[in-house]
Amino acid sequence: MSVDPFTAPLVGVGADMGFVGNPFDRADEVRRDAARLAVLRRARDSRWLLLVDLKPVMSTEGGVLDLLWLPPDDLPEITDWVFLGFRGDAPHFAASVAPGGFVPGRPLDARGAAIQLGDSRSGIIAQARSLLSWHATHGHCAVCGAPTEAIKGGYCRRCTAAGCGAEHFPRTDPVVIMLVVDGERCLLGRQPAFPAGFYSALAGFVEPGESLEEAVRREVAEEAGVRVGRVRYVASQPWPFPSSLMIGCFGEALSTDITVDAEELEEARWYSRAEVLSALRGEGPFTAPPPIAIAHHLLKAWAELG
């Protein structure tokens, strides 16, 4: 008999997942000190990560891909900027390059950069991309429509209208992503936009006034018509497209007949543990999510309990 995934110990799940492991001390107290931030921005040991159209600028020196960190004197014209935090004593920032600005590196899609780096540097990309994406789309007050200005190191925008002054904070959208299990098999689905043969765990946004457990049960029922009982939290992952928090769970199937919502999924089906293990090895019968994605780690954690 296989181990119960809702009670068995889970050790080290997602340790090598993408967009996690950010090494910075985010130093919230510094964000509230505008004068100190102004000094840190010009400090000789400050370092800046640039993004062009939300693509991090990378160094390829010596054929090795790395984040390109620039001193303040080497910055091109920038628009929005954010304080990332400290690494040791050195302050680190990220900024969007103004249109047409020259950068001494290679802008690379954030997902592709994270896959190639394969370590905690992807967590820095997640922080920078999510914040700068938010600034790019929140230049006006949601209360009165007046322009807003960035404050607190880029972690807040304040309305500039007299008599309003509303403060707006970066949003993070919670998304449940769940591996529904029924004994020796699990439920996977595919969206029409997925590559041929690719299947993943079901997922959906948490709605207002809803717990994570309720969101898991609702989303699975809506997308696949399967009822879920027990829910177990497994791990989480920042997903900066533009700014979600993927909350990985196991869900216990109370029913097994599948009724697909064609607006959400192209297909959903049950796969055995043996099939999942084979897919994780790249041997079929389906293409599994890559290690950068939390869905890969949900599948791996469950399959290896057997």
If you had to describe this structure to a student in words, what would you say it looks like?
This protein has 306 residues and is of the alpha+beta class. The protein folds into three domains: 28-137, Nucleoside Triphosphate Pyrophosphohydrolase; 138-170; 173-303, Alpha-Beta Complex (Nucleoside Triphosphate Pyrophosphohydrolase). Helices cover 23% and strands 30% of the residues. The chain is built from seven helices and 16 strands. The strands form three sheets. Strands 1, 2, 3, 4, 5, 6 and 7 form a seven-stranded mixed β-sheet that branches. Strands 11, 12, 13, 14, 15 and 16 form a six-stranded mixed β-sheet that branches. A hairpin with a 2-residue loop joins strand 11 and strand 12.
SSE inventory with pairings:
Blueprint lengths: L27 H4 L2 H9 L4 E6 L2 E5 L6 E2 L1 E2 L7 E10 L2 E8 L8 E2 L2 H8 L3 H17 L10 E4 L4 E4 L7 E2 L4 E10 L2 E6 L11 E4 L6 H13 L3 E12 L4 E10 L13 E6 H8 L13 H10 L3
Parallel strand pairs: 1-6, 11-15
Antiparallel strand pairs: 1-2, 1-4, 2-3, 2-7, 5-6, 8-9, 9-10, 11-12, 11-13, 12-16, 14-15
Helix pairs in contact: 3-4, 6-7
Say how many strands there are: 16
State the order of secondary-structure elements, H for helix, E for strand.
HHEEEEEEEHHEEEEEEHEEEHH
Q: Which descriptor suits the 3D outline? A: globular
Structural class: alpha+beta
Report the biggest beta sheet as strand number plus sense, adding barrel if it closes: 7 strands, mixed
Number of helices: 7
In CATH terms, what is the fold-level topology of the largest domain?
Nucleoside Triphosphate Pyrophosphohydrolase
- Spans of at least 5 consecutive residues with low confidence: none
Q: Output the CATH class name of the largest domain.
A: Alpha Beta
Q: Helix fraction?
A: 10-25%
Oligomer: single chain
By CATH, the architecture of the largest domain is named Alpha-Beta Complex
CATH superfamily of the largest domain: Nucleoside Triphosphate Pyrophosphohydrolase
Strand content: 25-35%
